């Protein structure tokens, strides 16, 4: 469970439908570069930005993350969003994390370049900017120049604290994995073997 002595915590929220090596490589790279005490993976409940019916049951998504992070002591998974009923928003998650960790813990939300463009659609985004910092990472297929411009603008306009980083570009997405499984193709090397086994055992994404 969460350890209150940690001072710098990375948060990786996502649908994780399913979790893949792109997520794990990203999280461990950022954990080391920013000397984070740990990275907490937070699978979403009912994501407000995605069609609910198309998202796999939260318990399966949680189990896959739990299995995937179990081999890294710097990783943890949280039920914070999947245990909340109804729609879940980052502001509510942050409020709960702040309560659990106390004010002297720095919370750093790890986000992909795609997410930087969505920040102003988040509920109470100005409050969110006051409660946590962000680590924005490059992702394949994104225009770096407009990405940096957008970040500078958010920092100036909203006093948001956004660090940027390069991370190994791993062209894996959950979408690609779901498509492969639907076509009956292998997802070997895209997800940990334990996650692949879980998908097969539970007949997910077919
Ligand atoms: P989908 O294809 O269903 O949209 P996804 O692979 O993007 O899913 P999410 O659960 O939405 O996975 O991702 C959670 C976070 O991880 C997001 O911030 C996203 O930008 C980031 N992320 C996902 N895949 C990668 C990757 N290959 N490299 C770097 N960041 C990634």
Describe what this molecule looks like in 3D:
The chain is an alpha/beta fold and 206 residues long. The protein has a single domain (16-201), classed as Rossmann fold (3-Layer(aba) Sandwich), CATH 3.40.50.620. The chain has eight helices and six strands; from the N terminus they run βαβαβαβααβαβαα. Strands 3-2-1-4-5-6 form a six-stranded parallel β-sheet, sandwiched between helices. α6 links the parallel β5 and β6 (162-165). The longest helix is centred in the C-terminal third of the chain and has 15 residues, at 144-158. The site of adenosine-5'-triphosphate has 18 residues, from α1, β4, α4 and α7.
- CATH topology grouping: Rossmann fold
Helical/strand content category: alpha/beta
Specify the overall morphology.
globular
The CATH architecture is 3-Layer(aba) Sandwich
For the structure shown, list the relevant keywords.
single chain, alpha/beta, 39% helix, binds adenosine-5'-triphosphate, 206 residues, Rossmann fold
Summarize the structure.
The protein has a single domain (16-201), classed as HUPs (Rossmann fold).
Secondary structure layout:
Layout: E1 8-14, H1 21-33, E2 38-43, H2 58-69, E3 75-77, H3 90-101, E4 106-112, H4 113-116, H5 125-131, E5 133-137, H6 144-158, E6 162-165, H7 174-182, H8 193-201
Parallel strand pairs: 1-2, 1-4, 2-3, 4-5, 5-6
Helix pairs in contact: 2-8, 3-5
The structure holds adenosine-5'-triphosphate.
Residues 14-17, 22-23, 26, 111-112, 114-115, 137, 139, 170, 172-175 line the site of adenosine-5'-triphosphate (ATP).
């Amino acid at each position: 469970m969460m350890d209150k002595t940690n001072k710098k915590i990375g948060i990786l929220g996502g649908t994780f439908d399913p979790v893949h090596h792109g997520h794990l490589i990203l999280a461990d790279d950022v954990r080391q570069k920013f000397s984070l005490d740990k990275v907490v993976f937070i699978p979403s409940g009912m994501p407000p930005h995605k069609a609910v019916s198309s998202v796999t049951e939260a318990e399966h998504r949680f189990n896959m993350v739990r299995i995937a992070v179990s081999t890294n002591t710097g990783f943890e998974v949280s039920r914070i969003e999947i245990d909340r009923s109804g729609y879940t928003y980052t502001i509510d998650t942050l409020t709960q994390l702040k309560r659990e960790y106390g004010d002297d813990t720095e919370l750093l939300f790890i986000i992909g370049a795609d997410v930087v463009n969505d920040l102003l659609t988040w509920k109470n985004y100005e409050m969110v900017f006051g409660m946590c910092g962000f680590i924005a990472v490059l992702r394949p297929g994104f225009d770096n120049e407009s990405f940096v411009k957008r970040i500078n603008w958010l920092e100036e306009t909203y006093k948001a604290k956004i660090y940027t980083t390069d991370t190994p570009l791993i062209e894996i997405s959950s979408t690609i994995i779901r498509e492969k499984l639907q076509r009956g193709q292998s997802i070997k090397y895209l997800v940990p073997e334990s996650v692949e086994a879980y998908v097969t055992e539970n007949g997910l994404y077919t």
